[in-house]
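Researcher: Please generate the 3D structure of the following complex. Treat every line as part of one assembly.
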Amino acid sequence: MTDATLNTGGDRPGSSLATQDARTKRRNRAEARFKAYGLTAILIGIFFLVVLAVSIIRSGSPAFTRTIVGVEFTITQPQIEAAEGELFKTKAYQTLFIDALKQQLDARGMEMEFDEESIERLLGKVGSTLREYYQANPGEIGTPVSFELAASSRVDGYLNGRLTRDSVKDSRFLMAADLDLVDALQEAGIVRSSLNWTFITGADSGVDNPGGAGIGASVVGSFFMMLVVLVLSLPIGVAASIYLEEFAPQNRFTDLIEVNISNLAAVPSIVFGILGLAVFIQFAHLPQSAPLVGGLVLTLMTLPTIIISTRASLRAVPPSIRDAALGVGASKMQSVFHHVLPLAMPGILTGTIIGLAQALGETAPLLLIGMVGFVARGYPDGVVSGFMDPNSAMPAQIYTWAARADPSFYEKAWGGIIVLLVFLLTMNIIAIILRRRFERRW
Amino acid sequence: MYDAPNLAENKVTQDKIKIAARKVQVYYGDTHAIKDVDVDILDNTVTAFIGPSGCGKSTFLRCINRMNDTIDICRVQGDILLDGQDIYDKRVDPVQLRAKVGMVFQKPNPFPKSIYDNVAYGPRIHGLARTKADLDEIVEKSLRRAALWTEAKDRLDQPGTGLSGGQQQRLCIARAVATAPEVLLMDEPCSALDPIATAQVEELIDELRQDYSVVIVTHSMQQAARVSQKTAFFHLGNLVEYGDTGTIFTNPVDERTESYITGRIG
Amino acid sequence: MPLLWLILSVLAIATTGYVLGRARVMAGAGGDSRDLHSLPSYYGYNVALKVVLPSFLLLLVWLLAQPLIVNGTVAADIPESAIPDGSSRDLIMSEVRRTAEGLDNAVAQGLMTEDFARSARSDFNDVTQRLKDAGQIVTAQVTQPILEAAQRYRIMNDTGNLILSALVILVALAGAAWGMREMRPEFRARNVVERVVHGVLVAAASVAILTTVGIVLSLVFNTIEFFRLYPAWDFFFGTTWSPSFTGRGGSSELGVLPLLWGTFYISIVALLVAVPVGLFAAIYLSEYATPRVRSVAKPMLEVLAGIPTIVYGLFALLTVGPLLMAVFGKDGLGWMQAGTAVMTAGLVMGIMLIPFVSSLSDDIINSVPQAMRDGSYGLGATKSETIRQVVLPAALPGIVGAILLAASRAIGETMIVVLGAGAAARLSLNPFEAMTTVTAKIVSQLTGDADFASPEALVAFALGMTLFVITLGLNIFALYIVRKYREQYE
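Model: Done. Output below.
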């Protein structure tokens, strides 16, 4: 049969290749559009990442600084005696402080009128701080002492732009008029900002004191939790992987384990929280809010991840190594523990660190075992109490702050996220270095 | 010497040059895969490229419709002219080129669509049919051309992957024919097929010569001898010898060609 | 802490057993280890294992059983009359435990003598006061029955602990003796030790099964308990969710439908963000991007997957919510009442899922054979025509599987909805309204003050069960599709 009509069937001219016909032009435009969609999708993803990073850094970095009022201040013995003779002793100290502050402002040529209430709003109860200091250090009486007093979190907010003059509503916490004083003090160089060690090392504070809240205690809580996870999940995960990869026969039981592992990897984390609540707290009566319980729950959650990555590294060890060991008369067990396991170790550790990093950021299960209702007001004393006593953990602490009504805590929550991400980043970098350093190609 | 019974029938009936290649060089990264290849491919002729594995015959074939463009590290130098026009000219759109220079691959690769849609794919993207009836006609003609119509006409809506290997390869040929190309490139089209399917495809190739210039890469010297009128022998990236199939197989000039044909290298 | 000391002494016995066993078998072989069946250390391990395994097993079983038995006995002894109306035996028992703990601590602090703690019969007013002085949290008044029960509780626990310590040490020593008797040179120590190690490996692998069993049991029992208190029909088909806050039941309406609706609505919004962006990103990365672009862009997208969900939750609450309010709120279009809404949570969850969709789809698109693409290019198709008409249809089953996995993630996600979606359960179509989800309500029902035995708390387990069944079903189905798809091209 002939096919003469086929070549003339279309409207495609047999013309020069160098000129694009209308249809080709249209198709090429569609091509460019499609490619642009793809690029846009990538850019959207990266855009979100950048927005996330910027808002974390911008909103979180103020948590690491706080405003300090630095006043050099001499108080004499007669002044102390006079103050101790008064009925309101701390008030007398406060008056002394205010006088000194006024003098310093005058000396810089800035006259300001302010009263005790505004000082209390800005700096809290200054008088009792001073009195305690001099009672503790009687030797300092009569010599100049430079005090660094932490300003209230609202002053922080004003200086870093969270509050503005317009948005301030007069309240017992802050009056618009106080801001004049803050401006004057700033101009005089008395107000400055410094690193907020309380935030980094401190424990949580009450709901009415955002300035005193710190993440330190919950870092310790997270640390004990991770210790539990590491000590349990690494040996169990490695043992389970060795069994499945090296010893397990092909049977129903093995299949059952495999199915369970792959399903557990996809079970929502909150369900693990329910498991922890029902089994560890309701049934086994372990203490609520304890890092031990949190660690146990996170161990169960992390195990599938660790098992999956460990099995991959065991599989990467070539069979020739096993054959070589068996060939010189080692038992199967010896060939695995003496040869395969050490060779797979870098991969296993990398997987474990990544699993730990995941566990460190996990929040939902901790809510259910009570690590949120608890306000971590101090450090655990000793190792046992570190595991058994109620504490918070970093993500749970961040959630607690985010759930509080006072917006001043939001800044702390963002700051907490920076601390959390620094830990995660460090762990991931260690994992990457480990992989680069010890990765072996067979 | 190779003694094919019908070498005498392999006569060139045309002398219009369809494709002319001059000083073609191909590089894969740092590897110089094709060196200084000059070849003229005639219209209405089956041209076979033979040579040992890795000699560059497939690479050269893929240059003719710029399939090598899809490989990032591949660079092509020199001129390849289709009807006197340089296909590596900047203004040439490879998409338009490939519509004129169709290709059939080593392994049958039907799309995961119905048989009908497989054949209609090319006409659709190139806008060859104005109406559904046009398209039906093209599909039927192409399937007939590929000798698949009788087997496939009752199952046009079934997936192309459900056909046997030989049928799949004929489907791929029908698919290539449906775009109404002027040149058909075939990269070892029978290497994945059994002998019966191979015979069917070879018969088909001979028929296709009526309308197209066919270039076929093959590992099998018997096949080259059976289907082609012209043969080019490639070795280590060089075109060693090019001429009438009969001459190449009975009276090669180059000793490398002779060694290959007699089975001493390859 | 006596438990720690108990464990340490068992370990000490094990170490001694290792050293002695090794020495004994070496002596038996005349100091030449070549006459032994196994390496000398295996004989030591054999003794140590026989010390550690039985005694720790006993310890574990005892520690699990003792609280149950003590609780049960003490609870059964509390007279019916001592349980006030509206309370339950469980509530009284938790008070008893608190009192007992208070007594323990008071004794530890030296504010009470042990004798006083045991025999403070008549003077329960005094006890309450003393406990308060010791800084212990006790209810307003420790009643006579509670005090008596608490004292019984302490005594039983003390006795139990004493017996436990004695038994564990005894078992450890017996194990050591058993192991030592086997220390003959021809004893196949390595085989025995390896069998035990093999057993340990099997046990470790079984943890996965135990976890699943634990999840299922803890969900099932509490769910059954819930359905005893609250009709299952009303739970599954009720359209109102309004738990009473008294924690005493009665007026609560606990219909799951508004929660399921909120869950699905938020997940759909999330998928509407994640699927197009993730899919196009995957297409670009696998088909268009140069290796250099790929090596930069792919890890950057994957960073999004490594960020903890609490961060996304905060991002929703504090950044995206206010941002949406500025556009759709009362200063803008006026569609939105508050920053927490379906849109907020869905959008942020979508961002979280982008890398999930893109890396799964990337894998799947890459597994479409190159021959398929070549076939299409060879016919003169452009790249986008090839992708849309050949690659995507071929990859479709795998991509559907990936989307289902992403959907299961979205349904099970907790922190973003807890912080970003609001707390009101409602059946509404407006995506700018606050809604709530199954996961968010599990959290709020179990972290509130509700009594553990009340339907308001137990409903969380029924919700958990619903969530577990839905996500498990989705996962199994998705993994099945993906596996089928992979097999097709292998």
